[in-house]
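Now for one record.
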Amino acid sequence: MKARPVGSESRSSTPPRAQRLLAIYLNDHLAGAGSGVSLIRRMARAHRGTPAGPPLAELAEQIAEDRESLREIMTAFDVPAQWHRVVVGRLAEKAGRVKLNGRLVSRSPLSDVLELEAMRIGVEGKASLWQSLGILADTADHLDRAAIDRLLSRARHQAAVLEGLHVEAARRSITPAPTPGPAAARHDTGLSRRARWA
């Protein structure tokens, strides 16, 4: 269910300096949220039909909803979205694809590990955002503290799901394969040994 942290009032009474800093802070997180939504959706598509597909698809839906909740909060505080920050964030996410997997076009075995690490960092940053807004909700009538707490709880759950997926991805990609036993080694051929090194 989508959380609705914004109450009935939609005008901000925040002092000008604090309002300016809040606008920068929220827009930075909005840019990060845009990058996160793009990445998690791509990961969900890449793993469609695999055991990781359903949890990634659910995460993609939740993370997109969280971005909408952030936009609602920005509206409540009269903070306009600075779309150039969002665009820069999306471009950075796309450029990071090459750095993450070491390949220009295809996915490498490291793609899953590094993308899950990036997503968890992003989700933990989002949890910190909700914590900060929870503090602000104590003095801002147009923020629902209970809804912010639900968003924080969901972010922590998302981080736990990502960690579980990360453990499995690391086990698949960077854990050495079991060494063949002596019997298997005796029946091995020179051709098969050369093929493994090819």
About this structure: The two ends are 51 Å apart (CA to CA). Helices lie at 16-46, 53-76, 83-101, 110-137, 145-173, 182-187, 190-197. Confidence is low (pLDDT under 50) at residues 6-11, 188-198.
